[in-house]
Amino acid sequence: MSIAANVVIGLVLVIHLYIVVLEMVLWTRPRGRAVFGTTPEYAEATKTLAANQGLYNGFLAAGLIWALLADGATAYQAKLFFLGCVLAAGLYGGATVGRRILFVQAAPAAVGLSWCCWPADGRHRPARAPAPGTGPHRPALRRAARPRQLAGAGRAPGGLS
């Protein structure tokens, strides 16, 4: 995985931390109302719903922090999972709330997902299933070496086999 993928994940993380602050703290204040285009009355009536939504965005941010701090297969799987969740939320928000969400939330997550799936050295390698009995904690099982047969050994006399 490339450094660029982690930079994009960091960007998605910062976006979600900003969304948390907007929805949980600034929802009824002029800055929050300006960002979401709401009236003071609407903001006051929906502040509990906005705070709840902000909490969910906080969980996405927490997951992305975990994904960036983890290592190995756990980090890779967490990055794919949480970026996938952000992408799904962005697509749903883009379809139900407004197209701006597609660009603010879904597009960066899609870029991050695609870069997570691209090897760090830039060369594409076809996916290949690991050999049976192998994995991060199990060494490959090796077959016992067979002794080399000498030419002609084990053949019937006269070349008949």
In short:
This protein is an all-alpha fold and 161 residues long.
Description:
The chain is mostly helical. It has one domain. 62% of the residues lie in helices and 0% in strands. Helix 1 (3-24) packs antiparallel against helix 6 (100-116). It is elongated, with a radius of gyration of 27 Å. It starts with a helix and ends in a 45-residue tail after the last helix. The mean pLDDT is 85. Residues 128-138 have a biased composition (Low complexity).
List keywords for this structure.
161 residues; mainly alpha; elongated; membrane
Number of DSSP strands? 0
Q: How much is the radius of gyration in Å?
A: 27 Å
Query: Which range does the strand content fall in?
Result: under 5%
**Judging from the principal axes of the Cα atoms, what is the shape?**
elongated
Q: Could you say which structural class the secondary elements and strand pairing correspond to?
A: mainly alpha
Overall mean confidence score, pLDDT: 85
Helix content, binned percent: 55-70%
Distance between the termini: 55 Å
Low-confidence stretches: none
Secondary-structure element sequence? HHHHHH
Domains counted in the coordinates: how many?
A: 1
Outline the biggest β-sheet.
none
SS element count, helices: 6
Protein name: Membrane protein
Pfam family, one: DUF1304
Biased composition (Low complexity): 128-138
Region (Disordered): 127-161
